[in-house]
Structure prediction request, 647 residues.
Amino acid sequence: MPDYDSLHKQSIDYPESFWGNVAEELLWFRPWDRVLEWKYPYARWFIGGQTNIVYNALDRHLKNNNADKLALIWASQDNQEKKYTYRQLNEEVSKFANGLKSIGIRKGDKVAIYLPRIPEQFIAMLGCLKIGAVHSVIYSGFSAEALKSRIEDVQAKALICSNAYPYGKKTVESFKNVKEALKDSKTVKDIIVVKRTETNIEDVDEASVDPKKNYRFHWWSDLVSKQDTVCSTAIMDANDIAFILYTSGSTGKPKGVIHSHGGYQVGIYYTLKVSFDIGSEDIFWSTADAGWITGHSYMLYSPLLNGITTFIYEGTPTYPDIEIWWKLIEKYKITKFYTAPTAIRSLMKFGEEPIKKYDLSSLKILGSVGEPINPEAWLWYQKNIGHSELPIIDTWWQTETGMFMINPLPYTKSKPGSAFKPFFGVDADVVDEKGVSLAPTKSMSSAPGASQRLLESSKNMGKQGFLVIKKPWPAMLLDVFNNPQRYKETYFEKIKIAKTKKQDSFSDFCYFTGDSAKIDEDGYFWIVGRNDDVIKVSGHRLGSAELESAFVANPKVAEAAVIGKPDEVKGESIKAFIILKQGVEPSDELKKELTLQVRMQIGPIATPDEIEFVEKLPKTRSGKIMRRILKAQELGQPIGDVSTLDD
Ligand code: WTA
Prediction:
């Protein structure tokens, strides 16, 4: 058991040598000249270095005799199975990459991927990176509208999608969304369609989809079958764009978070390796979806960078029945299992009997991500899935951070509900609005009278404040696509760190996470939740502004304000306050209509739980809706400072 605190201190005192050593474990076409350069507000890692995520995720394993090891196992919800060794996966990826080239996709081109959880989703992502194209994955549960706006913002030249796919008892006819999204599209030139079901094939033929011939249509199987199984991996600069992933912020439309080939792979490779104690025989199952960052970093890329087997299950946690997850863990001998608190809480409802029927002894480590895990769910998870002893790795991170930032390690002492301390090389803190640290120091607790003071301030817990990161880390976002101003304002202008006497080269670095947290006297971090208008429903990230604009798109609605409310299972639920246009009568039918409207505009994950019709909304004099006040009122909490309120 290494001494975590001293190793951590060393890693943040010398981040360049720390991350430089990690990067040596991976392959580079050309070594870097400098590990890190920070020029407000951009950090660039491994400058001068050349690599490619795929070079390390696939090619490296073919070179070091791992070619016949399983890279990917896929289980469908109708009992099919597909297995790919590293060699086979590389061949599939190469064929697809050659297919992309054959339709004119080149290095730097943007490709949108709108696929369900099937192997082609991963093959498409890897195929893009192999030739240096930039992928932008759009969650398959998003609506036509959401798909369209992302395709347009990223200026995608090609779209990869499926005709339809099974989802629990339903069949989702996702191609309908594609057709709708591509109407009048000026950017997409080619679409490549995977046939996942036999259901709606007649609607998906070439002639009917695009009478105006705006784009070319290809069945995936036709395009790929004629391609060569060899394709050279493109040489990329460390800071070239690997992918863009859209995520919700506190204002406006979702933003395109950009990640690199170089720093990103170093960060995700090492965080998983250390935090989940990765060994060569591991079979890792992340229950996420590639539509979200977890599906990029820890379902696909990091397991392959680490040369292990990644497992994906197509279905939901409760289909065909509520035992499916435990059945799959037994069948595939999963060793590391990574899921979200919402899933744990919803499976807790069914009690322990369904779990006891299965042999879960292959499991060695469990993980959690996406929202704070409450101690009750933590303890249940460890007792019932983790044979009362497995480490629970609660990982705090974000789309923007790319990699785990705060999490325990298998050998550190846990406190259920706390995400432990920052990972190596990550300099995190909790500060007030002036940037002054709120962490209780050890010296405070040992000074005379200090323990008394700490007790008064709520059980040796520091005050709640803003969670910030004070030094760059390798997997941090490169920028916000097409919007550098928003990048700067969102992450670097909210808080200016209080200058200390010790000025180092990072004295103007203070990345604002948007989360609130507390640090206890042992240095453990307790994540409270978002402090902006981002709502986390079942771990899915949604912005109040996006939801509001979906409501306001209905001609009967004058204004809307949306808040997140605590929910026992989903973490947060969505409540909307609606002002109707003059002459429109409130009714239950109208509530149903609006609910449908939001589902159509964003997708089923955004379904509002409550709608309340109101006459007025609290606003500042400049007309900004104060959601904070609505929320406080809704939860029966003090309303706070209302001096800027207009009415
Ligand atoms: C929240 C997901 C508490 C947090 C990887 C963050 C968490 C947001 C945790 C990012 C955790 C994520 N404990 N809260 N272990 N993990 N969050 O971008 O509010 O979808 O800011 O990335 O999820 O959500 P995102």
The pocket of WTA is lined by residues 247, 292-294, 368-372, 394-399, 419, 513-515, 527, 529-530, 536, 541 (CB under 6 Å). The longest helix spans residues 86-102.
